[in-house]
Amino acid sequence: MTIAKYLFQDIALVCHIFIDESGEAGISKVRTDTSHGSSPYFVLAAAVMPQAVRIQAEKTLSAVESAIPKKWSHATDLTHSQTVFW
User: Fold this and answer.
1) What was the pLDDT predicted at 17?
2) Residues forming beta bridges with residue 6, ordered by sequence position
3) How far apart are CA 73 and CA 75, in angstroms?
4) Residue 25 needs a FRET pair 20 to 30 A away by CA distance; which of 11, 13, 15, 52 works?
5) Four-residue CA torsion sign, 1, 56, 66, 47
6) Burial call 9-33: b when 16+ CB within 10 Å, e when fewer
7) Which residues pair with 15 in a beta bridge?
């Protein structure tokens, strides 16, 4: 997590920047209809949140984590129905 400060008319706005990726960039063996390999997709996402929004997002994430009836550390640990629900 990186904290960035922006100055708007002498008012500092503290923002938190979250960056995540999914997939494997640069892999030479990509899966096709007839062969195994890596997913052909690579996704890079970012969210920039002011402090107040980050606090609410953390509360929402805690509620989601409490509603999932098992410990998990990665989305691949969840069942299909759990990922579809959230």
Assistant:
1) 92
2) 13
3) 7
4) 15
5) negative
6) eeeeeebbeeeeeeeeeeeeeeeee
7) 4, 50
The gap from C-alpha 79 to its chain's centroid, in whole angstroms, comes to: 18
CA dihedral 48, 52, 56, 61 (to 10 degrees): 40
- For the record, the structure tokens of 70 come out as 């098992």
The pTM of the whole model exceeds 0.85: no
pLDDT in tens, 14-70: 888 999 888 776 677 777 788 877 777 888 999 999 888 888 999 998 888 888 777
Binned at pLDDT 50, 70 and 90, residue 13 comes out as confident
Strand 2-8, strand 42-50: pairing: unpaired
